[in-house]
Amino acid sequence: MFQNDIEITPDLISRHGLKPDEYDRILHLIGRKPTLTELGIFSAMWNEHCSYKSSKKWLKTLPTKGDKVIIGPGENAGVIDIGDGDVAIFKMESHNHPSYIEPYQGATTGVGGILRDVFTMGARPIAAMNSLSFGEPDHPKTRHLVAGVVAGVGGYGNSFGVPTVGGEVRFHARYNGNCLVNAFALGIAKRDGIFLSEAKGVGLPVVYLGAKTGRDGVGGATMASAEFDDTIEEKRPTVQVGDPFTEKRLLEACLELMKTGAVVAIQDMGAAGLTCSAVEMGAKGNLGIRLDLDRVPQREEDMTPYEMMLSESQERMLMVLEPSKEKEAEAVFRKWELDFAVCGETTDDLRFRIIWQGKEVADLPIKELGDEAPEYDRPWVEPRKAAPLAADAIPAVNDVGTALVRLMGAPDQASRAWVYEQYDCLVQGNSAQIPGGDAGVVRVEGTGKALAMSADVTPRYCEADPFEGGKQAVAESWRNVTAVGGDPIALTDNLNFGNPEKPEAMGQFVRALQGIADACRALNFPIVSGNVSLYNETHGEGILPSPTIVGVGLLPDVAKMATIAFKADGDEVLLVGGHGSHLGQSVYLRDLHGREEGTPPPVDLALEKKNGDFVRGLIAAGRVSTCHDLSDGGLGVALAEMAMAGQRGVRIELGDLTPHVAVFAEDQARYLIAVNPNESAAVLADAAKAGIKVERIGTVGGNAVDFGPAGKASIADIKAAYDGWFPAFMGGKA
Amino acid sequence: MRSAVVLFPGSNRDHDMVKALHSVTGVEPTVVWHQDATIPDVDLIVLPGGFSYGDYLRCGAIAARSPAMLDVARKAKAGVRVLGVCNGFQILTEAGLLPGALMRNAHLRFVCKEVKLEVTNNDTDFTRAYSKGEVIRCPVAHHDGNYFADPETLARLEGEGRVAFRYAEGTNPNGSINDIAGILNETGNVLGMMPHPENLIEALHGGLDGRGLFESVATSVAA
Predict the structure, then answer these.
(1) Which residue in A100, A630, A718, B136 has a CA-CA distance of 20 to 30 Å to A117?
(2) How far apart are CA B143 and CA A729, in angstroms?
(3) Are A586 and A666 in contact (CB under 8 A)?
(4) Residues 527-566, chain A, touching B (beta carbon < 8 A)
(5) How far is B195 from chain A, CA to nearest CA, in Å?
(6) Which structural domain, as residue segments, surrounds residue B145?
(7) How many domains, chain B?
(8) Nearest CA to CA, how far is A448 from chain B (Å)?
C-alpha cells in the first residue's frame, strides 16, 4: 500500500535534489510538512531544469524583443512573423544527461520533446536540426554514444516525418563523461492559429491526451539537474522511451482538433510530466487545477500518485477544452487511436489538488509552485582566459596543400555524411538545402519563400574566452543564415554549461551570456526561446562551455538562394572581409600541431553586420549564387568545401602573404563568394563604395585547390580524407 | 487521371505524393483513410511512404491487413494500377501483391541519399516516359529496403522483365539482391519501389527525374 504520509527525512529531501533551505521554503509556503507526493511535486518544479533557478537572473538580461517577434521566451517555443499571415515557431532543447545514460532513447525523446513543444502551439513541424558533442574519438564510450545518439535522432524524426536539414557534430575530451544532445525543431502556423498554455475559464474540463502513463522517466528532470558520478548506470530507469508512431498520430490529432475551436489551452507533458503541465496551465491562467488520478490512462498496474505525477512517459498532452466540443474532440482522438480522458477541471481557488482513490493526496498553492521557486544569484568569478599567442610562436608548414588535406580528414572537419545520411532530410518535399552547406533551407509550402537555419557554437573559443565565444556563436549562426541569402530574424539558444555552484563555471555562464546579448543587440537578432542545461560535469570536470545557437532567417525568394558549390570554371573568387591573421584557438593549431592555445578571434560586431548585409544584398539582387562563410579552418577549409561541392577546383594567388596564416586564420566576419568575371569588377566597385574590404583572390577551375608555390591539394585527395574519416572511425579503423 | 492515396496511421510521405500527383497530372488525388473498406474508382492507387503502425511487428505487416488493403487487393486483381513507394512497397509484399521481402538494410542503418536508378524495363505503365537503360537520379530514405527473393522467384522476375528499376553505377544503398529497386507483379499493373520519385519533381528538389514515372501512368491512362 502506498504511504503518502511517511516521515519526510533529511535523506529523503536530499534524494529529491532539494537543499535544506529549499525545504524550509516549502514548509514556510504551505505551513505544514508536505506529503510524499507533494515533496515529489516540489522537487519536480524546483529543480534546475524546470525552474531555471541559477540562470533566471541572467536570462532576463538577454534581448528578446524585435519587430518580428510575436512571442518570446516563456511559452513552449518562440514565434516570429514571416509575412503573409504566416509565423514560424521554434525552439531548441537539450537531452544531454539521458543521452549519455541511454543514447538511443535519450536522443529520441529529446527530438520527440522538442517536436511536441512546437506542435503544442499549433504549428506543423517542417524542419529539425541538432547539435551533438561527443568525447574524444578514441575514448572507449564515444563510438557507442555516436552510434546510439545518431540512430535515435534519426529513428524518431524519420518516423515522425520531419526533415532533419542540418546540425553539427564535434569531438572533444571534455565531453568524455557528458555528451551534449541539443535538438531543434521549427514549425509553421498561421498568425491567428497560435495556441497557448494559459487556461481560461473556471469549471472547464482538463483532458488528458495521447499515450498512457507508465513508470518511465520518474524523476528525470531531477536527474538532469545533478552532476554525474559512478552511480550513473543505476539511473537508467529515469530515461524515458520514445514512440514516434504515437507522436505522429498525436500531431495529426492535435492539429485536426485545433481546427474545430475546441482547444482553450494546451500544454505538452515534457519534463516533470503531469505536474509541470498542469501547474503551467493553471498558474498562467490564474486558476486552480484539480486532477483525479484514477481517470489518468495508465500503462502499468498499481501506480502510486507519486509515480503518476512524476512520470515522464512520452507523447502525452494536457488540454483545457471547450465543454460543448468535448464529444467532437473525443472523436478525433479515437480516430487516431489515442487515449482521451477527462481527468480534472479548472477551479477558482488557485490550488493544485490531486485526488487518488477518493482521497486528496496533494493540495498546494499553484502560483507559488512556479513563481516562488528559489532564484539564486550564484557567486561567480571572472573565468580564466587563455593567454594570447605571439605570431612567431605559431609554427609554419612547408606545404599548405598537404596541411589542408590533413585538416579535412581530422575528426572535427571530416564529412558528416555518415551521420546525416541516417536522417531523412527530404520528407515533406520542401527541402531546398540539405546538410553539407552553410544552413538548412526549407520552403514554406505554397509560397516562394523559405526559412534558413543554422546551429552553431565554437566551444573551444568559449573556453578560451567565454565573452568572445558567446559573441562568436551568435555571429556565426547569423553569418550562416546570411550566406544562403536569408534575412536573419531571431534565434533560439541552448546554454550547456558545468556546475553553477562553482564560481568559475558560473563565471563562464555569465560572461558567455553577456557576449551573446551583445551580439544579439548589435545584429538585431533577438532570442525568442531556449533552454539551459547546467551541471554538465562528471567527476568534477565540466564540459567546454557550449552555448549552442540556432539562428533562423527568411529568404523572400528561394530561387535566389546561394549554395557553397563552385558553379562554373572561370568564375572569380572574392574574399569579403579580407585576409586574416588570427591563429589562436584555430583548428590549424589544434589538429596539425596538437595545441589548444591562444585567444579566440575577436568578433567585431559592427564589421560582422556591415559585411553580412553587403553579401546578403548581392544574393538578394541575384548577383551572387555561390557563397560560403569562413569559420573553422578559415579560407583553406572553406575553399576545399566549395571545390568538393562543385566538383571543380580553384587557383588562389597568395602573393607575398605568409601562406599558413592566410590559408588557416580564423578571423571572423568573412565570406567567400564566386562571381561571373563580367560581374566581378562591379562587385568590387560596390564594395569600395560601401567601405567593405573585398579582394579578388583567385579563379574557379582545375581539379585542385591550388595555392601556387605555397602548395596544392587535389580534390580527389581532399575528398578521400574528408569522406574517409567518419566511416573508418565508426568501423573501428580510425 | 484520377488517383487515390491511401493514408495509414504513421504514413508520412502521403503529402509529398499528393503534391507530386497534383503537380504532374493537374488533378488533386483523393486521400483514403485506411479504415475505409472501399477505394473510389480511380486509375491509380498509391500506397505512400512512411512508417505505418510505427514499423511495429514488421514494416508494412499491420497496414497490409487494414480494410482498405482488402479493396486494394481486389482492385489490383481487376487490373487497377497500384503504386507502392517505400513503406508502400513493404505493404505490397506483406499483402502478397508482390513477391519477395524487404529486409533491414545490409549496413543496418537508415539511409537517406540520392542514388542512380537504371530503367530496366521501360515497357510498363509506370516507366514508358523513360528510355530503356536510361539512368535517372532518385532519392532513397529507408531502414528496410534490402530486397530479397528466393532464386526461383528471382529468376522469374528477371526472366519476365518484372524488374522495373535497378540501382545503378554502384549506388545500391541497402544490399538488395541483383540491385533491385522496384518490381512489378505478373500482370504489370502493380509496381513497388523503394526510391522516392515524388521527391524529385520540381526545381526546388534539384531535379525533375521523378516526373517521368507519373507522366508514364498518365500517358498509359490516356491511351
Answers:
(1) A100
(2) 22
(3) yes
(4) 558-559
(5) 12
(6) 3-222
(7) 1
(8) 10
Tell me if A547 sits within 8 A of A495, measured CB to CB. yes
Q: Which domain CATH number covers B107? A: 3.40.50.880
A620: closest CA of chain B, how far (Å): 17
Half-sphere exposure of B51 (CA within 13 A, CB side): 27
Exactly one of B34, B94, B138, B196 is catalytic; which is it? B196
B111: chain A residues, CB-CB within 8 Å: 421-422
Please name which of A69, A101, A329 lies closest in space to residue A237, comparing C-alpha atoms. Answer: A101
- Encode pLDDT of B42-100 as tens digits: 999 999 999 999 999 999 999 999 999 999 999 999 999 999 999 999 999 999 999 99
Number of continuous H segments (helices) and E segments (strands) in chain B:
5, 11
- Averaged over successive runs of 10 residues, the pLDDT of chain A (734 residues) comes to 82 90 94 94 89 93 97 96 98 95 95 96 98 97 98 98 98 97 98 95 95 82 58 61 94 96 93 90 95 95 91 93 94 94 96 96 92 91 93 92 98 98 98 96 97 98 98 98 98 97 97 98 98 93 97 98 98 98 97 97 98 98 98 98 98 97 98 97 98 98 98 98 98 80
In this prediction, the answer to ipTM > 0.95 reads yes
Amino acid residing at A642: M
Q: Residue A462: which of A454, A473, A452, A451 has the closest Cα?
A: A473
What sign for the dihedral angle of Cα A579, A582, A583, A588? Answer: negative
CB atoms within 10 A of CB A62: 19
Q: With beta carbons less than 8 A apart as the criterion, state whether A151 and A422 touch.
A: yes
How far CA A624 is from CA of A127, A439, A481, in Å, comes to 26, 16, 15
Q: Are residues A422 and B109, on separate chains, in Cβ contact within 8 Å? A: yes
Q: Are the C-beta atoms of residues A116 and A162 closer than 8 Å to each other? A: no
* DSSP annotation string for B70-128: HHHHHHHHTT-EEEEETHHHHHHHHTTSS-SEEEPPTTSS-EEEEEEEEES--SSTTTT
Does residue A95 have an active-site annotation?
yes
Q: How far apart are CA B159 and CA A565, in angstroms?
A: 43
How many inter-chain contacts (A to B, CB under 8 Å) are there?
82
Pairing of strands A650-652, A546-555: unpaired
Instruction: Please give chain B's pLDDT, 223 residues, in tens.
Output: 999 999 999 999 999 999 999 999 999 999 999 999 999 999 999 999 999 999 999 999 999 999 999 999 999 999 999 999 999 999 999 999 999 999 999 999 999 999 999 999 999 999 999 999 999 999 999 999 999 999 999 999 999 999 999 999 999 999 999 999 999 999 999 999 999 999 999 999 999 999 999 999 999 999 8
**Which residue type sits at A198?**
E
